[in-house]
Fold:
Amino acid sequence: MKEIGKIWMNGKLVPFKDAKVHVLTHALHYSTSIFEGIRCYDTPNGSAIFRLPEHVDRLFKSAKLYSMKMQFSKKIISDAIIKTVQVGGLKESYIRPLAYYGYGTMGLTPTTNNVDVSISCWEWKMGESEAGKFSGAKCKVSSWIKIDSRSQPMQAKAASNYANAALARMEALENGYDEAIMLNYHGKVAEGSAENIFIIKDDIIQTPPLSAGGLEGITRDSIIRIIEKNGGFVIEQDLERDDLYNADEIFMTGTAAEVKSVTQIDKVKIGNGKMGNITKALQKSFTDVVMGKDERFLPWLTFI
Ligand SMILES: Cc1ncc(COP(=O)(O)O)c(C=O)c1O
Structure:
């Protein structure tokens, strides 16, 4: 991690190395934090944050699901995100707003503790999340089952959801794969460890409904809207493991992953084992959008 710029903590910009919390911070013990992952792209017209209002909305939605009383408004958080990016001076970056129950009462009930907020930003170049971006990722169907909303609110981007995701990701990597695909308790496809998933069969693009347990990804939404704007459509329906093996093409979407092709699942080759044409075309369309080259989607960019 290159320690560049400053970190915004509860309204103050502090030097990167000084952005510290107390060891008795509630979230450290009980996972009571929520966060966002946002990209800022180096476009030909300057640096631009992709879908900033949608990310801030999701942060507040996550906070509500954990009864967190945010001490800052959406406007203050949005302005603070822009400020943190500007102060960092990076053209391309990954931005991590985080809200967490802080230091105060130690016990399971955090609601009397302050909800502290930080915004960090670090260097992240386009396409840096490489597995599958250019050549195709090899994925393992995880032996870990995706937790669901009977246990925790899955539409919160909450740290507590990521222990499950990290187990799946580690298992996949330890077994020589690039990424995990998680099934839910009904055996239906939920998502990757940190990406939504799409399959293409006979030119029909399909993705699991959010009720399958995946996060309402902003990249997922962007891809669906790009497809629709270009005259196509996406069918949301439950997918089985068989659907994965039989697909002609598979891709995953996420802020970090962008549009990532999947060419193998377990020991099964997907389609001809190479990135498919539809995935390739969508990667290009998505890149055009984030780079500000598609005027129809310019409102998704916040130039800084
Ligand atoms: C579990 C999970 N699913 C899906 C996504 C994709 O969401 P987005 O496209 O908003 O980054 C992410 C990443 O944020 C994630 O962590």
